[in-house]
Amino acid sequence: MTWDNRSGGPPIARVRTLVRTFPTPEPEADGTLEWSATTAVVVLLEAGDHIGLGLTYSSPAAEAVIQHHLADIVRGSDALAVAADWEAMHRAGRNLGTRGLFAHALSAVDIARWDLAARVLGTNVAALAGGAIRGSIPFYGSGGFTTLDDTQLADQVDSWLRDGATRVKIKIGESWGTRIDRDLSRVHRLAALVGPGVAMMVDANGGYSPGQARRVGLALDDLGVDWFEEPVSSDAVSSLNLVRLSVRCDVTAGEYAADLYDIAALLPVVDCLQLDATRCGGYTGFLRGAALAASSGLQVSAHCAPAVHAPIATAVPNLRHVEYFVDHARLEPQLMDGVATAADGVLTPSAGNGHGLTLRRPAATP
Ligand SMILES: [Mg+2]
């Protein structure tokens, strides 16, 4: 049955969490971090006949944050009371700190809340956000780890081009900015792989000093790169601006933003704001962040988690694109059914209620 949201929805009867870790095919690295697996922390909220699903890519410790600090807030709550529970959860983080791990945990629960509310009302999450503006959204191929050899990079780029990607992004800033020659030669190689019709993007993950970033940025301009992500640490906002004013390519950041205060600090120093719904307060935080970016005349780009972002991104007017990050694009169909399909350069969400994603049965049991 469906519910009238003026009279409230069914109570949330059960809060379940689970952690799934997906090894990468081999160790991977960007400019400042190495990893060999990706961990998804999943939340399942049950109300009536409906189950809402949310997730964050985080530490397994995010599960404990949900169970110890957030589950009691949403258990027994009205399934349609999404905004009220967001406020209650955020208040519960006062002494812990509301950013970092806590924001990851809150984000997972909020995404599950949106999914559940939409399913209870018999509609999708875009409709709850005011309605889809478009049926699909542009994506860009993302990966290009510093650990890949030339053949592996060529294979990765080829897979994105087969999906119709018109933009691709690789990692630079290798070993904290100590391999600049290799960084630039890899961009040069990328240019040869994609040809003139595909835009090139790079992400230094904060690996350069401000001076290095300015000099690398000028070389990137010459190579035709139009997106220079986190040239320096995104915590160093004045340095971000320094780089931004020195180069032609867009300077971007925002993937670590946890709330509107973080976003407000970045808006004056970026050309496009990146936002991650699994970190910035769920769909609630993502939509609010996108609106705040619009107040500076900026577009937003969804960071990673393409399956999670695609359904809500269709309702965001100032959305530029969604990052089709290779690790997540690989694991999301293993974890969930209903994952958005990538073809012809766009991601098309499934037509199901909520965000259209459900936990796959093999993934449902440890
Ligand atoms: Mg990044």
From TrEMBL:
Q: Name one GO molecular function term.
A: hydro-lyase activity
Give the protein's cofactors: Mg(2+)
Q: Which SUPFAM superfamilies match?
A: Enolase C-terminal domain-like (SSF51604), Enolase N-terminal domain-like (SSF54826)
Q: Which residues form the Mandelate racemase/muconate lactonizing enzyme C-terminal domain?
A: 150-252
Keywords in alphabetical order:
Magnesium, Metal-binding
The signal peptide, as residue positions, is none
Entries under SMART domains matching the protein: MR_MLE
GO BP annotations listed: carbohydrate catabolic process
Q: Name one Pfam family in it.
A: MR_MLE_C
State the InterPro entries in the record: Enolase-like_C_sf, Enolase-like_N, Enolase_C-like, Mandelate_racemase_C, Mandelate_racemase_N_dom, RHMD-like
Instruction: List the PANTHER family.
Output: ENOLASE SUPERFAMILY, MANDELATE RACEMASE, MITOCHONDRIAL ENOLASE SUPERFAMILY MEMBER 1
- Stated name of the protein: L-alanine-DL-glutamate epimerase-like enolase superfamily enzyme
